[in-house]
Amino acid sequence: SEVKGSVRALSKQGQVEESVSVMQESLAIARSISDDWLKSFALMDIAVALSKQGQVEESLAIARGISDESDRSNALRDIAEALSEQGKLEESASVMQESLAIARGISNESDRSSTLKTIAEALSKQGDSVLSEKTGLEIPQIADRHQCWKTIAENTCKEVGQQQALQQV
Questions:
Q1: Using CA atoms, how far apart are residues 97 and 114, in angstroms rounded to an integer?
Q2: 39: Cα within 13 Å, side-chain hemisphere
Q3: Residue 104 CB-density burial (10 A; 0-12 exposed, 13-18 middle, 19+ buried)
Q4: Under-70 pLDDT residues of the chain
């Protein structure tokens, strides 16, 4: 995370070449990590940082190379959120669909539940209430589903106001 902070600081200062160099070094280090769990998190951070710098294709390539399905789906979700924040809504929707497809295929119920929950919440935050609710219904574990619906309700209230949210329900 120190490297990610350095990259952001360098990018803000306009030192793009140095930022790219640090990012490439970070990527090489992350790929050399032997622990899959730690490697996944390092690659996720790098992929999201690259997407925020506008390097979407490289970002997606890194995310798609993550071996753990849940981590891969989460990285793609984070990239989709970054794209949405940049106003790249079509790209964001496409990447979010890819994240969702991966999440649906996760065999471990707990991981699938958690991943679907975070996707549904992200979709709700982006204002896609239909897909958010549909995804929320796919969450297999009740505790995750309950928390998801709570977050969707809170996001809906923020977006359209409490009275209109109650009318929608």
A1: 17
A2: 13
A3: middle
A4: 1-20, 162-169
